[in-house]
Amino acid sequence: MAEAASTRRILTASLVGTAVEFYDFYIYATAASLVFGPLFFPSESKSLQLLSAYASFGVAFLARPVGAVAFGHFGDRIGRKSTLVVSLLMMGGSTVAIAFLPTYAMVGWLAPLLLCILRFGQGFGLGGEWGGAALLAVENAPPGWRARYGMFPQLGAPVGFIAANGLFLLLGLVLTPAQFLEWGWRLPFLASIVLVLLGLWVRLTISETPAFAEAMAEGPPPSVPLGEVVRDHKPALIAGTFGAIACFALFYIATAFALGYGTTTLGYDRTAFLGTQLVAILFLAAGILTAGWLSDRTNPRHVLMIGCVVAILTGGLLAPMMQSGSLLQIGLFLSLALWVMGFVYGPLGAWLPGLFPARVRYTGTSMAFNLGGILGGGLAPILAQALANSGGLVLVGLYLASAAAASLIALTLIKR
Predict the structure, then answer these.
(1) 301: pLDDT confidence band, cut at 50, 70 and 90?
(2) Domains and CATH numbers, the chain
(3) What's the whole-model pTM score?
């Protein structure tokens, strides 16, 4: 009974942290798509405002590898548990603070500057979050269950997305557009404090992972984990980085970009589009669960490769389905894209940590994941919007297919 309770706490702790992560990141992505342009940036044109808001969204991805180095350093030297507590506080605190920011109309250029600083804080905290949560799960997994334990951090993505999207949907139903623009957008950021407190409570009740304890028993921790990763595990770092690109590109094109494009260029009602995305995200959860089970039956790398092949084909469907004039067809495309994302995201929790030894696993896993986030996710909304503006959705589909192809090549070249 005690062992079962400990397992539940470990898996909950790994899930809650990434649920907070995706809640925080998605409320920012949603707000960037809907309101941050006119609220925080000069008003030369709506398109320029939207691009500026997406650029502020990308700031966090630049902060992520910095956070990965910092939290990975301490995660490999003093342990997973305490490092995860600090990363959660940094990420959640930055999110809550955004709720109290003044707008451009109030303080001019100070408003976007403060927004970008807090966005950097979100990304810095996130840099140590996913890697630590994945290690917390897989380093406690019994034999034959690594992928199914490792998928729990990924399940935090649909949980956080549903919480964020559901709250925005509810606000859209009870507030007028003027009320939402004036003060309603602040409420999701303020509500983040509930998830953060829940995550802290769970994480403070768990113990250190057996793999870290064994690594410490074998010898002193590395003095500079990043140096050891770059010196001794460069192929794994490069392969892990490119192997993670596809999941980020799929997620942010099917969520942040699709929402902005659907409610502006295509002219769909915001509430209806959010509802469509809320249904589609359930397919992400289904994809993660299926991929986790298949990965333990076969191999995480093989499942990731299958997901990349299907993601390339999905890129070809983006333009015809998004331009169909039917919200139902758009919903089908988003459901397909997010289901496929489950196959290129769910197995990462088992695959990436397996590329590195326990003594530098926190640093290596976090760096690969977050560098992949820059290449696949940080640029995705703004690049997709720019491509759509210049050449239409066909170019966005090619961009998605190219990201998936890059991941497929990386997975093919490294067989460990």
Answers:
(1) very high
(2) 2-413 (1.20.1250.20)
(3) 0.83
